[in-house]
């Protein structure tokens, strides 16, 4: 997809959500659409082409996106939120996430159905549900295999 196509898609997403299409918001959504994995607020701020968007502005934009369900955030256990464009239109997670225990890579597993918890204790109300799969990504798994092979063949 071209940069122009990502920009057009970002504009459509913002319009459909009823949010103002400012250049900053459009660029943040465009950046998230292009990203291969969910990004932290710091990564988003660093990758923006304009210096006019400070951390607070990026935070406010992400918060607005969350409130209308066009992004979701993932907490990976290190107290840092990661953000990704969400195609389901809900703040609730519609798919699980993979977290590499070696390099920290996070991926949305959009093709995987998430189990839905329907039976909980009486009086409890589920507001959000998150499912994480943890292990080694392809790169770390390959490095681990090579290291083991070298240890036994060396």
CATH class: Mainly Alpha
Tell me the number of helical segments per DSSP (H or I, 4 or more residues long). Answer: 5
**What is the N-to-C succession of helices and strands?**
HHEHHEEEEEH
> Main sheet: which strands, in order across?
1-3-2
End-to-end gap: 45 Å
> Could you tell me the strand content as a percent range?
5-15%
Estimate percent helicity: 40-55%
Count of β-strands:
6
The shape, in one word, is: globular
Class derived from helix and strand content: alpha+beta
Kindly report the average pLDDT value.
85
Q: Summarize the main sheet.
A: 3 strands, antiparallel
| Rg (C-alpha, Å) | 18 Å
Low-confidence stretches: none
CATH superfamily heading: Winged helix-like DNA-binding domain superfamily/Winged helix DNA-binding domain
Number of domain units: 1
CATH architectural arrangement: Orthogonal Bundle
CATH fold-level label: Arc Repressor Mutant, subunit A
3D structure, described in words:
The chain has helices at residues 3-17, 23-34, 41-47, 55-68, 138-153, and strands spanning 39-40, 71-75, 81-85, 97-100, 106-108, 132-135. Strand 4 (97-100) and strand 5 form a beta hairpin. By secondary structure, the chain is an alpha+beta fold. The chain has a single domain (3-153), classed as Winged helix-like DNA-binding domain superfamily/Winged helix DNA-binding domain (Arc Repressor Mutant, subunit A, Orthogonal Bundle). It is 42% helix and 15% strand. The chain is built from 5 helices and 6 strands, in the order H-H-E-H-H-E-E-E-E-E-H.
């Amino acid at each position: 997809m071209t940069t122009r196509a990502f920009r057009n898609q970002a504009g459509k997403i913002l319009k459909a959500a009823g949010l103002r299409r400012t250049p900053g918001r459009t660029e943040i959504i465009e950046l998230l659409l292009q990203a291969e994995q969910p990004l932290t607020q710091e990564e988003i701020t660093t990758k923006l082409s304009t210096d006019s968007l400070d951390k607070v502005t990026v935070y406010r934009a992400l918060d607005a996106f969350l409130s209308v369900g066009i992004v979701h955030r993932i907490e990976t256990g290190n107290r840092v939120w990661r953000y990704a464009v969400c195609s389901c239109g809900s703040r609730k997670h519609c798919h699980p996430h993979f977290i590499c225990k070696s390099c920290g890579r996070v991926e949305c597993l959009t093709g995987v159905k998430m189990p839905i918890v329907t039976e909980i204790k009486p009086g409890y109300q589920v507001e959000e549900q998150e499912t994480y799969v943890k292990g080694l990504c392809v790169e770390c798994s390959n490095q681990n295999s090579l290291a083991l092979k070298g240890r036994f063949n060396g």
